[in-house]
Amino acid sequence: MAEVKKPSKERIYLQGSSDAIKVPFTKITLSNGETILVSTVEGEKVSPLPKIRAKFTKSTHNSVKRTQLDCAKAGIVTEEMEYAAIRESYATGDKMAYTPEDVMAEVAKGEAVIPANVNHLELEPMVIGKKFSVKVNANIGASQVSSGFAEEIEKLKLSLKHGADTVMDLTTGINDIMGLRQAIINNSPVPIGTVPVYEALDRAKGDVGALTWELFRDTVIDQAKQGVDYFTIHAGLVQELLPHAAKRILGIVSRGGSIMATAMIRRDEENLAYTHFDELLEICRTYDVALSLGDGLRPGAIADACDEAQYGELKMIGKLAKRCYEAGVQCFIEGPGHVPLNKIKENQELEDLYCNKAPFYTLGPLVTDIAPGYDHITSAIGGAQIAKEGTAMLCYVTPAEHLALPTPEDVKVGLITYKLAAHAADIAKGLKGATLRDDAMSRARADFRWYDQFALSLDEEHAFEVWRAQMPEDCAHEPSFCSMCGPRFCPIRTNRVLKARYVK
Amino acid sequence: MAEVKKPSKERIYLQGSSDAIKVPFTKITLSNGETILVSTVEGEKVSPLPKIRAKFTKSTHNSVKRTQLDCAKAGIVTEEMEYAAIRESYATGDKMAYTPEDVMAEVAKGEAVIPANVNHLELEPMVIGKKFSVKVNANIGASQVSSGFAEEIEKLKLSLKHGADTVMDLTTGINDIMGLRQAIINNSPVPIGTVPVYEALDRAKGDVGALTWELFRDTVIDQAKQGVDYFTIHAGLVQELLPHAAKRILGIVSRGGSIMATAMIRRDEENLAYTHFDELLEICRTYDVALSLGDGLRPGAIADACDEAQYGELKMIGKLAKRCYEAGVQCFIEGPGHVPLNKIKENQELEDLYCNKAPFYTLGPLVTDIAPGYDHITSAIGGAQIAKEGTAMLCYVTPAEHLALPTPEDVKVGLITYKLAAHAADIAKGLKGATLRDDAMSRARADFRWYDQFALSLDEEHAFEVWRAQMPEDCAHEPSFCSMCGPRFCPIRTNRVLKARYVK
Question: CB A466 to CB B404 under 8 A?
Answer without folding.
Answer: yes
